[in-house]
Amino acid sequence: MNEASATTATRLLATVAALVREMRPGAPPDVGLDASLDADLGLDSLARVELVLRLEKEFVVALPEHALASSETPRDLLRFLLAGSTHGARAADASIASLVQGDGIRPPTHVGSLTEALAHHVERQPDRLSVHLYEDGAEYPITYRLLWEGALRFAAGLADAGLRPGERVAIMLPTGRDYLFTFYGAMLAGGVPVPLYPPARLAAIEDHMTRHVGILANAEASLLVTVPEAKQLGYLLRARVASLRRVLMPGDIDQAGASIAPIHGRPGDLAFLQYTSGSTGQPKGVILTHANLLANVRACGIALRAREDDVFVSWLPLYHDMGLIGGCFATMFHGFPTVLMSPLAFLVKPSEWMRAIHRHRGTISGGPNFCFELCLRRIADDEMAGLDLSSWRYAFNGAEPIGAGTMSAFSERFARWGLPRHAMAPVYGLAESTVGLAASTPGAPIRVDAIDRDAFARTGEAVPAAADAPSPLCVVGCGQVFVGHDVRVIDAAGVELGDRHEGALQFRGPSATSGYFRNPEATRRLLDGEWVRTGDRAYLADGTLFITGRDKDIIIRGGRNISPYELEQAIGDNAAIRRGCVAVFAVPDPAAGTERVVVLAELRDRNATNDDGLKHAINALAVRLIGSPVDEIVLAPPGAVPKTSSGKIRRAAARELYERGATSMSRQPVWLQVARLSAAAAMPQLRRALQSLSGALFALRARFVVAVLAPPVVLAALLVPGRPCRAVGRALARVAFRWCGIPVIASGLDQVPSDGGIVLAANHTSYLDALVLLSVLDDRGFVFVAKRELGASVLVRRIAAGFGVMFVERFDVARSVEHADELAAAAGRGVPLVVFPEGTFARRAGLTAFRSGAFVAAARAGVPVVPVALRGARSVLRDGTWWLRRGAIRVIFDAPIAARGSDWAAAIALRDDVRAVILRHCGEPDLLPSTTPAETEPA
I need a labelling partner for 838 at 20 to 30 A (CA). Which of 191, 203, 223, 802 fits? Predict the structure, then answer.
């Protein structure tokens, strides 16, 4: 690479980065030569025109006209710059070919598998730290080179042991070098790793073996790699699993000096099998391809705003998806190091976690809710002496129900040692979505929704509780759904629900599994067309996901849905009960035709006897929280409550234990249960059925209204175009919303100037947006501006012409410039314009990037822009469906904002000012990355 080419490339990237920082203040992306100007850098057509003008000024050249239209990346622009300063295009291409893509630290953008991502970093930054491992009292820094070489050695050993491409390799090892080398080695040998957790204690060996027989048999594993201490268990498994040919120790496959040609999987190939914990019956192997993995780690990086200076500190076990994918794969892909410590070290002394964050200046770390509880209970103040947690910018909490009190208490207490104010971040994920699906915005306050407990139990609607409510139900928001993914909440009939209505949560996206390995029946139950059932119950509110419980754990009591988690937490607060060791579940009672609620709780004192006073206290809690006492309370010794490998309560296993009669108790008489429940059961169940029917009738009525009113609108557009057509459309839009029962509430209309040129800029949420604005605006001749693609249909184009719609180009650069000039001329003539600067909308709630055209036009014409915020339309009619749902729509008009000049900088400043106002009013999250997110108060 000659020096002149490198200098030109550096100056080019600096110019691009400067413009991008203007377009997206607060979050300058990592600009590389192969970044997409549009998709990656957010430069729309007019911004690219500005970029070319700046490049011509910077390099004192005149770029050809087709440079603008044909350039998709900075590398394309560099080719034109070099062609103009060397001996022609061929020399330019030769210089381009010698440039190394990016700086080596940027995440790989064009790899098809996880091992290709590892190879990318080995090639570009071999000596950069990948993993800092704490193992058996020693420390092992592992660079990308060492990780690659160790994985290749183990790959060669696995191949020599008979592993064939596509075969499954079970890995039953603790966190350590052997685990990492075996896992990546299995992939490089063409195998499919299957993580298993090693036995924690001999007392559980029978249950442990039984569980893994099912996993190994289902996976048809050929090899098992385990620790020497588990050798006997390994051979027992081999005797019961026909496919298992060999049981190996890490030393058996660590072949120093051996070489093997690495096998990189293709995007659609099976990468590894993540088995569920088995807490709800037979474990199921989640199929995860390389495409799933890469999509999820990319989305995680976007959600967490990953930086090259990040450090991930993890105590999470590598056989758990949060520890393996979140703690290893994601950091390896994004090119920053992870610090791995033993889960046992954390459990024995939680302050070691804090010490690792302090020592390594960890920026990202977390775990399930119980780990934060453990820190609160087990870390003494003197253990924190000298520690500084100020680097910890993202403390994620997920994998189990999240306690608002836990997060608040953790934040308050550890703030004394520098924990940033809003570091705590609730997240949500599941193995069927690879690992993550939603995450809170870094640096944003936790959103806790306080809702009316009784209304939620009766109707499933998350109605905000009154300020003086004595005992509201507090639900923690898990943030926003990952980029490129989508969720929906449906009722029992499969109808999608609107905001603040609880139902079954489903998702779709590139991280979604295709099903369970060799288990078609479970796969059938998992998939609902293109949607994946999560098994969780949830509701959405302003783009935030709120998880309320699991379908299979829900207890139906008197027609009410009761989640066991809150009662378990409350019982665990009793000093006589072991916290985190309470299981609340329902068992069928055929005689009563209902379910009985059972509490299984571990006593702190092994020698304590059943205490009637303690049972009375538990029932008092139940009455307060669920409205009635439980049917059975079993007080058991420590260790009685079954849990998963990650510490979750296995309610199904607890239920099985109870039903086998492993603990003795006397059942309450049937007549007493019937007397207590029969009066309350009928009406709530009937109410829910009527609500579902009412929703269907509402949607059908809305369709009927549209069918009746649409023909007059079409006729008006064709026969009386212009102002008469708009008058007819306005009147019918108002009638339509009134007949449908959808209130449209406008505020701030007095802010709109009564004459002169003006631009109304609104967020885009639904196909209803234009009708909503048409129904509330006066008869001034407002002209709507729409994307050119909507005019592809002849009929739509004719109707749009009747309403005076102006179509603009979004992608063709030359035509975008022409249309911006046309908008400026129209605004200058006094034509009031209505624009949706986002350009399009999606199901996912949130304010996206604004295109610059309308603001350039307003600045040139010298007319003000009125910010308009739309709320509720997305919930009433989501993208991808024509099934309307109940809900109110609000339209908030704010004060006009004038540009402070007519140049590019003034137009971009105007755009940012307008967007900030709309963001404040629209009630949806900001989907533009920013290093300093706006703080909003918790709900």
Answer: 802
